[in-house]
What we know:
- The chain is α+β, with helices and mostly antiparallel strands.
- Helices cover about 30% and strands about 30% of the residues.
- The protein has a domain at about 115-140 and about 185-305 and about 340-360: 4-Layer Sandwich (Anthranilate synthase), CATH 3.60.120.10.
- The strands form 2 sheets. A 9-stranded antiparallel sheet has the order 6-2-1-8-9-17-18-7-14.
- It is globular.
- Its EC number is 5.4.4.2.
Amino acid sequence: MKEDFVLKKTEAVLTTCLANHLAFYAYKHPNSQHIEIGIQKDMDLLKYTDFADLDGLSGFVMAPFVSTEQHSSWFIRDDFNFSSFGDDEIELLSQYKNTIEEKEDKTVTGSKQDEYFTQIAAFLDELKAGSLEKAILSRIQLEKGISEVKRAALFLQLCQCYPHAFVSFVSLPGICSWMGASPELLFKSQNNNSETVALAGTLPINKDHIQETEWGNKEIEEQAFVSDYIERVFRDNAICDYEKIGPYTVQAGQIVHLKTDFRTDANLSFKNKARIISALHPTPAVCGLPKTKALDLIKRVESHDREYYAGFWGPVHANGDCALYVNLRTMKLSENHLSLFVGGGITADSIPQKEWEETQHKAQTLLSVINQFVSS
């Protein structure tokens, strides 16, 4: 009964924010069902270029895959922070309203299979020429939109269906609205302990024998690229004492990945953390290696703008703690459609049909919940 009460209050708060055009973030950490909500009462959103500029602030960040004039890195203040709330607080929240002209994004189109195969052929040409070790090709899958009044319920459904993911819902009225269930930590720091992960390699799940998954050379190599890159970042930032655990198999929705954990108790300043975050993003798992060449290939070949897909988001605290996750298994919410962004790591040994199927499996992380929600 208490859990139902909290869920109803959570839905009421988020629905009020959407109706009143308030900028907000809502999230739950992996392995937790506790939902945090932060709300900014005005639209004076902070754009930032250097994560170090957020030192001493408390709120939530949302950064794009690549910062551009069109897609900035945003910081949302927590003028209101609801971890538990009552009717009086919801009534207080109702007093704040913003007038926003919502702009429907009419430029987004889904990725057709033949277009995807043309793009992957261009990737393979460069990979086989030896100029790249790995590059990530993404696509957009368009689904029918849902009304604003149902979005809070969809977020809560994601929280329940994916207990091991970082589930988040961010709304920046007049700018964008995104929701996702990410399996990948970018960087977390708490009480002088910092950690990151290498998450790469993807196969469909065998629910009966997850830990007996047989990984091929392509997936093992793909995961090793990411692990090696993280170790280079640590060395470049004078972090020599760290713990490395893995690789091991983990489930993420209807698929499994290879994962390696990296942890250190090095006493990092906020500026140190910002430097590491900058070096890690975008990770080889969402971009490729070498990073500069992979980014150039993505810009030349992909026909869509990734926007905030493969960027990062998460809470930042005034004491310097943070928990940032790569924005994967994610969708952009617009008035008339949902844009699901999915991608996969391409190496010289990639088989186009299998890579397409991998993106289909990844799309099911959200689609399975959307379909349940629509049919309910």
